[in-house]
Sequence to fold (305 residues):
Amino acid sequence: MPANFPEVWLDRVIENLDNSDVAPFFADIPELDADITEMGEGTATETNIIHCATTDFDVDILINNNTYPIPVQVYDDGTLQFKLDKYQTKVLSVSDDQIMGASYDKIDVVTRKGTKKITSTKYSKGVHSVAPQTHTVSTPVMVATGGTEGLTDATGRKRLTYEDLVVFKDLCDKAGMPEEDRRLILCNNHWNDLLLDRKNFGNQLIDYVKGKPAPVICGFEIFQYSIMPRYSAAGAKKPYNAIPTADDKIASIVFWKEGIAKKTGLTKQYFVKAENNPSGQTNDLAYRHYFLVTPFRAKNIGAIL
Fold:
């Protein structure tokens, strides 16, 4: 077994997390210019904390508008303290035979499930955080109407139409959302609705493939994502990972690129060598990753239900 086995595997996991392209709508959002402070290292209460200027954030909205209240502390010197979300894998067990040579192929095979789950969870949590809590003039939330024909799917859900996108654009205009860099992340239902509307969309969505620029429709850069926020029948955003109910409405969300804050924290590896693990006689690994996506304030965001 190579002497640098733990370091090689950790470096590869960090690379895979950093290079993930499963959320292109967040990919080019710049990282917050803030140093990471690690608190309680090696304990159950370990956290990653950053400090940002109060002028960049609307504190009241951050407390009330996100997935769950992000711990924010206001300091007298004009800064805010944020605690990044923590994502952890279960323990991965690999034998000495499996890790001989520590090739990238073997590293990826063993760690793929863990890194993939961290990535999908942190981005779905980020999408949920960006979604507005409820409808306001500054954070429009509208329900798809099915257009003038009242189109529905097999379940009776009103389909999203071109007319709906025009109405939603108008709501975003009136909310003061800048016209450049508006990004609309469609849930699967709404994406499929637009696929059916060939009159207005032709092959714009059908020809959308990885590596090509996102299509622009009604001024929105269009993306698709499968794990989208849920809203109650009354139009209130439900907590992240809340138990789904029959009355839930799955949302598509819009945001202005420059109105979103992103910060990637530390990635840590926990490792026990096989020689120190007589009961299992395996090399046991686990990973911990910190990440945060949030709107700067409760504006320049919206949703379609």
